[in-house]
Specification:
The protein is an all-alpha fold. It contains 14 helices and no strands. Helix 4 crosses helix 9, helix 4 packs antiparallel against helix 13 and helix 8 packs antiparallel against helix 10. The longest helix has about 40 residues.
Amino acid sequence: MDLKKPLTFDEQLNKLVAHGMVISDREEAKDILKKVNYYRFTGYALQFRKDPSGSDYIDGTTFETVYHLYKVDEILRDTFRRYIEKAEVYYRTQIAYGFSIAKCTDAPYDQHYDENNFYNKKGYKEVMETFGREQNYYKDSLIVKHHKTKYSSKMPLWVIVELMSFSNMSKLYSSMYYSEKDAIASMVGVSKDTLENHLHCLSVLRNKCAHAARMYNTDFNPPAKFTTSFLRKHPEIKNNSLFAYTLVLLKRLPDEESKKSLVQTVETVIDEYRSDIDLNLIGFPENYLEIMKNNL
């Protein structure tokens, strides 16, 4: 079967109109499609289809509304990216410190290179193989050159975590023995299972933000973990929703100021585009603000 024929920007607009989308300003719409890929744009119109398996839109669906949903996603990605960075720096510190103090206090202080110091040896090997590629990416940096010359390319763990991707660091924590997981988790006031899950969730959210992936009307995996008491109190929360991941980020931020700022920013975005947003499609309950403020 042949692939779909490429369309000019005018043909893309004609296709949207043919499927029932209302375009009030054609030139402005064309300018938007020149910046936002047609395939990406129509992903935000999925909720407006008459039939999920069809292409026609319900009456009254406007190009402007769909673009507003795209803007919401864009603003939230930019917002989350800034706050994930704060959490990322913090947890790099906790993981490096917790493991090093537990395992690397005897000469030659390189116990993090020994797979026997990790419970999931297969997972650990995969982490280090990935880190080898990450380290090579930074081969021209002064850090890598210094350790290559002086320490035969070996590095302390607190150096390694600064070169690792957040996703790989999450897997490193997952590979540790319970004793080290518990020690690190206790430093931040959660259980090891919750921290492991939250690090995984944050790495997924980070990657979506970094690659401009759609978050609106999207399920997230893995489902976020919360305490049983929290879920009993808030049965309206869907663990695989954007709101659940927003709560994970909120809970894992290291300081009160950042938490309050995140809540305020999310509130501002929701308020500005409230007439266009279907909160159900991002898992935000009507009382989302109350829930977020209660988790400061």
